[in-house]
């Protein structure tokens, strides 16, 4: 029997440089298992929103600075119009404000354009599988900015979680998908989703990445 071919991961590329888009597209389309298809491209906020609504990609690779506005505007609009869409920021800009806004906008990853092709593909595979790709440095940036601005913060008191909710959060922070968490804890995938929903509500967060930020901050508090 011929082995089944995994469904392609459908990508929307958003970058105002056609040269950059061509380079990324060449890297992604070279991957075959699973295949990664670039279904649309955009160079502006307006085009990104329109292309996302039309093509409903699995993942958007999104630059932050676009000619007609911030990529975060596009991010929030795309996720509102197409809730199943995952967004990975791919940019040459890294500062506390950008990383903070990325996390509160609900992105699943924040990558620099200096990333090597293999790592970029792996990041896409991870996000497509339901993982978030925010490293400890990114989480530290978010909380550093929150403390400095006095903005409303998530509830970082993990004691509000039940023992099982905490176990789920630990595994999510390690990058496991709901299915993988279920396998680790002998739970169904739906049960994991329910536990995770409770975690989000109790910690006052909306995404896996935000929950991971809370856990990482609690376990690794900043040094005085």
Order of helices and strands: EHEHEEEHEHEHHHHHH
CATH topology of the largest domain: Rossmann fold
Using the CA coordinates, give the radius of gyration.
Answer: 18 Å
Alpha-beta content class: alpha/beta
Distance between the termini: 62 Å
Query: What coarse outline follows from CA principal-axis ratios?
Result: globular
Number of strands: 7
Q: What composes the largest sheet?
A: 5 strands, parallel
* Biggest β-sheet: strands ordered side by side in the sheet: 2-1-3-6-7
Low-confidence stretches: none
The CATH superfamily of the largest domain is Response regulator
Number of H- or I-type helical stretches: 10
Number of domains: 2
> What is the percentage of strand-forming residues?
5-15%
Q: What is the second-level CATH architecture of the largest domain?
A: 3-Layer(aba) Sandwich
Which percent bin holds the helix content?
40-55%
Question: Can you give the mean pLDDT?
Answer: 83
List the helices and strands and how they pair.
Elements: E1 9-14, H1 18-29, E2 36-42, H2 45-55, E3 59-62, E4 65-66, E5 69-70, H3 71-81, E6 86-91, H4 96-105, E7 109-112, H5 117-128, H6 136-149, H7 163-173, H8 178-185, H9 189-203, H10 208-219
Parallel strand pairs: 1-2, 1-3, 3-6, 6-7
Antiparallel strand pairs: 4-5
Helix pairs in contact: 2-3, 4-6, 6-10, 7-9, 7-10, 8-9
Can you put this structure into words, describing what you see?
With 224 residues, this protein is α/β, with parallel strands linked by helices. It has two domains: 9-142, 3-Layer(aba) Sandwich (Rossmann fold), CATH 3.40.50.2300; 154-218, Arc Repressor Mutant, subunit A (Orthogonal Bundle). Helix content is 52%, strand content 14%. It has helices spanning 18-29, 45-55, 71-81, 96-105, 117-128, 136-149, 163-173, 178-185, 189-203, 208-219; strands at residues 9-14, 36-42, 59-62, 65-66, 69-70, 86-91, 109-112. It has a five-stranded parallel beta sheet with strand order 2-1-3-6-7, sandwiched between helices. α2 (45-55) packs parallel to α3. The longest helix has 15 residues, at 189-203. The protein is globular, with a radius of gyration of 18 Å.
